[in-house]
Amino acid sequence: MTTSPELRFRLPDGSEAATRVHTLLNAGYAGRNQADVAAHVAELAELGVPAPAATPALYAVAPYLAQQSGEVPAQHGRTSGEAEWALVITGPEPQDVLLTAACDHTDRALEVHGVAWSKNAGPDVLASTAWRLTEVADRLDELTLRAWAGDIPIQDGSLAELLPPAYWLDFLREHELYAPGVVLLSGTIPMVSGVDQFADRWRVALGDPARGAAIELEYRVRRLPEFGGK
Description:
GO terms for molecular function: catalytic activity. Helix content is 16%, strand content 38%. The protein is an alpha+beta fold.
């Protein structure tokens, strides 16, 4: 019996694609301008977040954390999402690589002790619809990425700000990880300063302005009950 989660996606032509996740990877510090990334690493270090050994970074995450859910349980009030795109490999052919919206829900209290730990403390929420990467490959930098913490816009940018899917697909091939069941999240774009990220709802939208289309996901954050004890 397998414990790998199955992800299912609706495609624009009405068909459906599915895969069981056996490898889940989260990119970090994956801005296309690595000078800006270095400045961001320095800012985070001042907040106590340990710097990565190298940038961009890639973190292996437990596969069961890949979820298509409308609810994320949280142990405390310092968790929040990050708008990202995700690659989902469902088969051996180029048309089997899907692009969808994702939200990496991260434990910020744990992040200061280890980024990899924090990413394994919350799920990667993926949308239930997707596009074939081959169908949007000619305009990837024009695709938009937005997020809302509650009803407040907190992230607004484009895929041009992040390392492109081709970079990560080459990485997967180089490390013999290109296979059905692999899911990779892109890393995120900057958040708007001053917005409270610790909201009880998160929404992410991956937009294609050329077609007037978007892939969206939304979930609420549910605080788990607290009990006494050590």
